[in-house]
Amino acid sequence: MIIVIDYGSGNLRSVAKALESVGARVRISQQAEEIKQASHLVLPGVGAFADCHRNLTASGLLPALWQHVEAGKPFLGICVGMQLLFSEGHEFGIHPGLNLFAGPVIRFATDMADPEDGTRHLKVPHMGWNQVQQTQSHPLWRDIPDGAHFYFVHSYHGCPQDPQVVAGRADYGIPFTAAIARDNLFATQFHPEKSQRHGLRLLHHFTEWRP
User: Fold this and answer.
1) 2-208: what fold?
2) Backbone phi, then psi, for 160, in 5-degree steps?
3) What residues contact residue 163 under an 8 Å CB cut-off, 6+ apart?
4) Which tens digit of pLDDT belongs to each residue from 145-193?
5) What is this structure's pTM?
6) 160 — alpha (psi -120 to 50), left (phi > 0) or beta?
7) 153 near 125, Cβ under 8 Å?
């Protein structure tokens, strides 16, 4: 059973429906006992870093999440669900994260030049389709072409201290981390549930992943 953690963040239903579409048994849950029994765990997220971290802490689900991670079972973070895995977020102040990956989550600069028109600045948030370059081999990338397009909606991006955990990079004014991976953890800044064929393929591989 794949559990999508319900901690008051949005986008839960679309993630669950995408997983169901690739044949997974899925449940959206805010029950610690159900989360402890999950074979795979998904942490989605939309909104502000601090609010999402506060909601996750207040939900009382963190011990069950940690138990899942420490047991070596597959874990997928999506968007803010990826950002929460970092040490701290720099949105409306500096706020602690889960510190599973060392490094901050910082905002895109508002003065990045548009490469197609040097007289304009790129818009923040970064919203739309972008190519992702795979920087490490991983089971979740299987059969997905390097440079495939995925869908992004974000103003902040994670900056891991250890370059070896970077699983994918994209470019929006600057190169930024689009995916991270280590052991039983995989997380994406993009939304696989909104990324059509390649996103669904990544989710399918997640359902079959046994780290």
Assistant:
1) Rossmann fold (3.40.50)
2) -65, 140
3) none
4) 999 999 999 999 999 999 999 999 999 999 999 999 999 999 999 999 9
5) 0.96
6) beta
7) yes
Contact predicate 10/47, CB 8 Å: yes
Tokens at residue 161, please? 């201290």
Q: Which residues contact 5 (CB under 8 A, 6 or more apart)?
A: 29, 30, 35, 41, 42, 43, 44, 56, 61, 65
Please check the confidence at residue 64 and state whether its pLDDT lies above 70: yes
The predicted structure's pLDDT at residue 119: 66
Indicate which residues carry an active-site annotation. Answer: 79, 191, 193
| Number of residues in the chain | 211
Report whether 122 contacts 112 (CB < 8 A): yes
- pLDDT, mean of residues 52-63: 91
The residue among 180, 182, 160 whose CA lies nearest residue 69 is 182
